[in-house]
Amino acid sequence: MPQSTSVPSPDQVTDLVTPVVxxxxxxxxxxxxxxxxxSQLAIGLGIDDSVLRRLVRFLAARGILSVDANGVxxxxxxxxxxxxxxxxxxxxxxWSGAAGRMDRSFVEDCLxxxxxxxxxxxxxxxxxxxxxxxxxFDTLMSARAAEWADELVEDPxxxxxxxxxxxxxxxxxxxxxxxxxxxxxxxxLVERPGPARAAxxxxxRLGLADRAQVVTADLRGPLPTGYDAYVLAxxxxxxxxxxxxxxxxxxxxxxxxxxxxVVVERELTDDQASSAAELNAxxxxxxxxxxxxxxxxxxxxxxxxxxxxGLSLEERRRLTSGRSLLVxxxxxxxxxx
Length: 337
Ligand SMILES: C[S@@+](CC[C@H](N)C(=O)[O-])C[C@H]1O[C@@H](n2cnc3c(N)ncnc32)[C@H](O)[C@@H]1O
Description:
Helix content is 45%, strand content 17%. It has helices at 10-14, 17-28, 38-45, 49-61, 77-82, 89-93, 98-114, 124-128, 131-144, 149-153, 175-181, 193-205, 241-255, 276-292, 299-307, and strands at 36-37, 65-67, 72-75, 163-167, 186-191, 212-216, 229-233, 260-268, 297-298, 311-318, 323-330. The strands form 2 sheets. Strands 4, 5, 6, 7, 8, 9, 10 and 11 form an 8-stranded mixed β-sheet that branches. Helix 7 (98-114) packs across helix 14. Bound molecules: S-adenosylmethionine.
């Protein structure tokens, strides 16, 4: 495995304070304000003046804020990038939403997960019990789609299909983009109750309700049948091999002999250990492992998983977003249970 050329200091890789304080600063809006004198800033943010001074001193020392001779506080380029509300970054750092909740769980549960101690049986139940948190997760997923969906939608694969089922499609950020880009397509989105309701509203808002059906169902049970392709985008990585195989098998059963199962996932590799993409992928892998008992997989892992339920790889494309598009067909042999 190649090593990174610049070696970080121990503090850079062990400090827990910086990531938490940056998230808190994003959440209270400290990084997204216009240049403002310290005293006005405290009033605007509704926090104590002495607390603000602490935060500002800390963030200025790390090049995230700057303070001029008159005490005017501004975000640096780094601060502006962190708090940019047009991308998914700020949603990922919002300490009060789903991302914050998952980050806190990660801190609490990482050691237990590494030691193989019992985890929550179904992490999605936490979202089902808390509609606000669940909605925040869906918003996060939709925001992150800006990183990968446009490129995926342009793939010629979709032009060869008449109908698709988007399994675990969230609020429809992929399915509805596909329907807008490919007029011959109709689709169904299968989701948990909360996102399914939001997806139905979104279909109506976008004027797509006549071409898009929304079904509330558990992906581990029977799925709507007869669609040309069953899409699993960033779904399998939320499950361990056993759970992922159940979902893949359900998709393979539903698509029938002529259908396809389309998987969109990051594929882990060892050949770019120091690239930003690989750093992201390995962090996401651990996050998924601790929070969901899942994780990112290598190409061989995905291949073997699909083969275990009678699916064989037909096409594979690496996308610039770091994801891979994998198209599987059912092999003639009966699906193994
Ligand atoms: C990581 S998100 C991926 C969302 C979307 N496909 C994307 O690529 O952005 C996984 C999705 O699977 C859904 N999901 C998880 N468990 C499910 C289940 N048992 N049945 C139906 N949907 C489920 C979640 O609600 C969530 O929207």
